[in-house]
Structure formats: structure tokens, C-alpha cells
Amino acid sequence: MTATEAAPSSATGEVSGAEIRLEDVTKVYPGQKAPAVDGISLTIPAGEIAMFVGPSGCGKTTTLKMINRLIEPSSGTIVIGDQDVRKRGVDELRRTIGYVIQGGSLFPHMTVAKNIAIVPKLLGWDDDRIVKRVDELLDLVSLDPSRYRDRYPRELSGGQQQRVGVARGLAADPPVILMDEPFGAVDPITRQRLQDELLSIQRELRKTIVCVTHDIDEAIKMGDRILILQEQAHIAQYDTPDVILGSPANEFVADFVGAGSSLKQLSLARISEVELRSATTARIGERTAEVAQRAQANGDLAVVVLDDRDRPRGWPWLRQLKGETIVEPTEDLVNLDSRATLNDALDTMLSNGHGGAVVTGDRDAYLGVVDFVAVTDHMRDMQARANQSAAEAGSETGGTRIARSDDEIDHGTDLAGTDG
Amino acid sequence: MWDFIVDRRSQLLINAFNHVYLVLLAVVFATIIAVALAVLVTRMPRLEPLANAVSAIGLTIPSFALIGLLLPATGLGDTTALVAVTFYATLPILRNAIVGLQGVDANLMESARGMGLSEPAALLRVRLPLAWPVILAGIRVSVQMSMGIAAIAAYVLGPGLGVWIYTGLTQIGGKNAVNYALTATIAIVVLALLLDLLLILLGRVTTSKGIRV
Amino acid sequence: MAETRPSKRVAAKRSGLGAGAAIELLGIPIIVLVGFAAYAWWHSVADLDFVEKSSLAWGDVWLQIWQHVRLTLVASAIVVAVAVPLGILLTRPRTKFLAPGVVGVANGGQAAPAIGLLVLLFLWLNGDLSGFWTAILALALYGILPVLRNTITGLQGVDPTLVEAGRGIGLSGRAVLFRIELPLAIPVIMAGIRTALILVVGTASLASFINAGGLGGVLTAGITLYRYPVMVAGAVLVALLALLVEWVGRVLELIARPKGI
Question: Which residues belong to any copy of the ABC transporter domain (chain A) (predicted)?
């Protein structure tokens, strides 16, 4: 199985998104001669993530904001589902489009719960339903509702604020979500986590998500499709990540994607393609002796501690297990979502000292453990298959693309050598 | 009204001069007192909340009440007016001077001392010049406020344009009542704006080019 | 979780007021109480002659305190009712170009001496308006500027991305104003209201010049009669009332501040 097939088809939920169509949309700001957006047309299929990337000032944010009419197009048509956005009242339209921006943009005078509840309230939901929805959403973005719902934004870290921002965008279950640099304001490790979480949420919900980013790696990781824009929102290329990486449409795209694009294909292969190992697991409250026995029988030196909802909470070595029963771990375990890329996997493995990582699926439930050898084996397989198909198909684009992954494996091991 | 002014122009000029003189004298005293207190606070930071509280509470006390409190000590006339105006003029300058002096980068002060400047020299040649724009902003607030307080002080026979305001009040119904009060009020507004302009100019001249915005 | 750590530190900080603010918030009511008790004690033991006694009769003093409070409250209420909506209007997209002009004019007006404004209005309106309402007009004109200015700066200081976020998730312009902009601007607006309260309560001590009552009456009586006990008593009472009003302003400021900011 190659990355090409894996990316869009790994979604599991029913599509709840709506198609977005832009037809010859132009925006000219008053007092400016050149249009900021010049006749863009594109279709974003329902249930997919479209990433808008391009140099600053290319009109990507303007294009995004025209979808929810924060910026009114000068001409052209935008259709969501089968409705022209201009046929609907602005406020009513926006209540059916989630909007997530950098840093979360939470209202500082409202609690987390109030921030999330704004749109459902506007839509006239009854209080019980709103309370339930808020808790459900907090849970979805991995924040414990009882702990966080009554906090104020300034009592949260940047990553947590951003999670609440995502929850607020999802609150009224809109078919379409617009994101403007959603993870631009957080540190790289938190960003990777948030990306994984969003992918996991998307696997379940399958909304149509339009996301502006300046980070090509983020675009490659997150996008079912990537839109690369030039000045005045001229489309340089609009396609799936592997096509963009494998056969950039022109020099602009090739430059933008960057010289390291062969290494970037590490971002296309997902953990879900790698065979997982099942490690010894333990429940909080279980007797330590029994757990240790089980682990020794399996030949494991560490056990994955799960909570009552199958979420991995810690990965202690056997020698660290003290006391009669397994207690709630205090460590801050960095898990890998099954849609995380091999790039993320290598990063995570290098930082935790286990030479592997715990993989989670929907709602952060435990799936298994991936180790370093499995990842490098998978990469070797990819390479072998690529060489084979290159031999068969000659100069076919897929062949040249994967043929490049020779050096990317070298890079991967180099990385291990220097950082580890 | 024009005839009214022309007829009494010498009196108007004297009152205007007295008014400005009173305010400027008070502000000069106030600046000296405020900067001295602020230097003290900078050296003993524990005094800062106290100084800020005094400054806030002081500004709350109505000027008319302070004038009443001063009378038994300073009597009717110029002294009461000067003391009262100086008191209020000190408070905004004090607040700004504390902020300004403390805002000077500690590293700069350390390097000044490190270069061999004595403590007073470092204060005079580094700290004060750098804090000056902030102090001057306080002085501008002070002058505006003092112009109005000086007018009130005329009630206890202080000098200045306030005299004509009270003249107008006592001549209520008379043909020149409004002329007296209006001329004095307008003159105070005009002089206040002129003084503000002069202070802005003073700021341009006395602020080091390196920190001018 | 590592991510929760910074929040605790912030939460601990929230409860602590600055030392200066604490002195003022706790100190002022103590000063006022002690001061008033001292005055009452002095009043009962002092050896006052007939003139002084009649000037400081409790009935008259209470009446003047009431008049003073009423002047302050009515004028401040008018100030808030005029200046806040005006400030809101001057920050709306369509009318905000007027803001610099209005603030400039208001700033210039601030240079006008309170006593001049009061006397002029009295001379102009003599007979048309009672002394009380003339005083109210002068006090309100005087108090509008700080509230207007702070309403404008407070609203302008609201992070525009929050406004856009509000619009972006489907709040109407009005909902954004009332649910996001105003709550976030409240601390700045309240600071302006407190400044206005101080200006108004102080200027109200001049209202007795135009027969509008207030505690200035005791003070003027003391000065015209040239009786030290009366003028000092009047001054002390005016100062205590002003301090009390300023304290109320501080408390209102604390109460109105939305949690979370």
C-alpha cells in the first residue's frame, strides 16, 4: 500500500461535510488597482481537508475569508452545498461555518464553556443540550471537561487555548470549518499533537475543512488536497500532496515545496501503514505483581498504562513500578496518532527513550506500539517497491517520486544518529 | 464685549500676568518637590505604593476644601493660593517622575556607575535626562490643572483671572457680569493652551535627540 | 500535564492586588470613618460661639451632605448616559472618523476652569433653570470628557482579531458590541467614570456659589464669616465626602471588571 491510497481513504466516519465551490471569484480592495484575488475557481469535495498555502500576500487568507463573507467578493460565486453564500444572511451563514483562527482567539472574559457555547446559544439550543455538547467537545479535543469548562482562557496554555478554539469551531456541528493559521502560535511539539488530534477528529467527523497555513509541511501532513497560490491568488497547483511532491506543476511549486521535498515524503507515509506490535498493557488500579508477570511472559521491559477509556497514560519501565497497585502515571506521555506521519514518529521516538512510541486511534484509544525497527523496515519496503515499480513502469511519475526516497531513508537514519 | 475688554485691557493684562506667574511659580516648586520625592522613592522602592496612594488620595481632595484647610495657617491672599496650587501641581509630576525614573534601564545605570560616574552624577547625567520626557508629560498635566485651581483660589483673594469670575458672580444682573466672567474664562483657556504649546516646544528643545520619538 | 503548569501561576497572581491599590481600597474607608468620628467628637466638645454653632448645626450639615451627594449622583448618571453611548457611536465604522475632532474639542474644553464654567452658566441661565439644574449641567459638561475619552480608547483597545472572531462565528455587529467589545472595554471605561466622579464631587463643592447647595456652603460660610472652626469643619467634611465617593468609584470598578481579564 502506498501513501497515495492511504491518505484520503483512512477516514472512518460518515461524511458530514459539504462541498465548497468557488467560481471565478475576484476581490478588488477599494483604492487598489490590482485585485487581491483574481478570478479563482476551485472545488473542495465534501469531507476533505483543503490546505491553502502560498507566500504572504498571495491572497490565501482573503480567499478563505470570502467563504464566510468576512470579506465580500467583488465578483464571482461561492457555493456551499448547493447554496450561494450571498443568498443567505451574513450572520446566519456564519453560524453554519466553523471558524478557527490563530491562538484560538478565545474571548478572555468568558469561561471555556461560555466560549464554546456562543454559537449553539445563538442558534437557540436549550441549556441541557448546550451543557452536554460543551462537555462532549472538550472531551473530543482531549480536555477534561470537569477540569477545564469553568476556566478562563488566560488560565490555559497556548495549546489548550487552541484546542478550545477548535472546539468552538465545531460547536454547532457545522458542515464546513474554516481555519486561519490555526496552529501558528504554538511550539512545534504542541503543534504536532494538535495536528494529530485534528486528524483524528476529522477521521470521525469528516467535515469539509479549509485551512490556511504558511507551513508547507503542515499542508502536506494535513491536507487531502493542497492549493498552492501565487500572487493575486492565481492557482499554481491544486492537487493531492503526493502529486504535488512527485510532479510539481511548475518551477514556482517546486521552489515552494522546497529542495528537501524528497525528505518531505516521509510526511506522506502514515503510522497506520506500519505494522504495530501489541505491548503489555495495564489498567490503573491493577495489582503490580500480576502486571509484571504478564510483561515478563511477553518479554516486555515496559508496560503501557491505560485509563478507563483505553487512553494510554504512561509507559513506565518495569523497574519503575512500585507499590501494590498501578497508580495513575504522572509523566506526560507523548502518543502518536495513527495518522501521524513517519516524520512525527521518528521525532517522538527520539525524544522518549523507548526507541518506539505508543499509537492511538479514535478518541485517543490505544492501538499498539510502533518501534524504530518497524519504521525503518517499512521505509526499506517502500524503497524496494518503488525500485521495482520504477523498473516496471520506467519514467512514470510515481516511480521517480519513490525512487527519490533512497536518500530520505539515509536522512532518517542520519537524524537518528545526530539527535539520538 | 470688545469695548469692555479694551476699556479694561491693562487690568486684564495684569490679571493674566498674575495668573500665569502664580501657576508657573507653583509648577516650578512642584517640579522640584516631585522630582526630589521621586528620587527618594527610586532609592527606597518600598515607598512607592505609599507615594502612589498619597498622589491618588491627594488628587481626590477638592481644591476648595484644601484652600479652606490652609486658611487658618496661611491667611487670605497670595500665599494660600500658591501653596494650594503647588500641592496639586506636585501630584501628577510625582506620579510621572516615579514611573519615568524607574523606567530607566537598570543596565544603563550600572554601566554609568561602572564607567566611574558618582551616584549623583549618574542621576543627573543619565537617569534624569532619560526620564525627562515622562516628567515633562506630568508637568503638562499639572499646568492645565493649576490654571483652573488658581481661578478658584481667587475666592480667598488670590491673584489672577479668577478675580473677574467672582466679580461677575457678585455683579449678577449688572450689565458687565457676563463680560467679566466670560473674558476671564476665555483668557484662562487661551493661556492654558498657550502654555501647553510652550511646554511642547520646551520638550523638543530639552529632550535628547537620541530618545525623541 | 505539562500544559497546565503556567495556568496555576497566573491564577495565584489574580487574587493579589497591587500594594498601592490595597492601601487605597482599605485605607480610604478607614480615613473617612476615623475622620468623621473625629469631627463628630470635636463638634460635641468644641467651645463654639452662636454663629459657629448655627453654621454647623447637624440638621443643616446633613441637608448639605444630601444635596452634595444628589448633585454628584445625578450629574454622574447623566455623564454616563451621554458619554458612553457617544463614545460607542464614535468608534463605529461609519462614524469613527469624527472621533479625533470630538476628542480634540473636548480636550480643549477641559482647559476651561470649572469655576468659570459654573458661573457663566449661572449668569446665562439665571431664571431659566434652577441653581440645582444649572449646577448639574456644569458638572455634567465637566465630567463628560474623561468618560468619553476612556470609552473611545477602551473600545479601540479591544483586540481587533477578537472582534473579527466574533463576527466570523456569526455574532451580529450589535452582539459583538454588547458581548465582546463592551465587556472587554469595561475596565478602561470604569476608570474614566471614576475620574469623572472625582471631578464632579470636587466641583460640586463650588455649587453653593450659585445657590445649588452642597457642602461648599459650610466652607463659604466659614470663609465669609472668617471663622476658622467653620471653614476647617467645612473643608474636612468636603474632603471626607470626596474620599468616600472616590472609594465607591474604586469598588464599582472592581465589581464591574469581568472575571478572566
Answer: 20-257
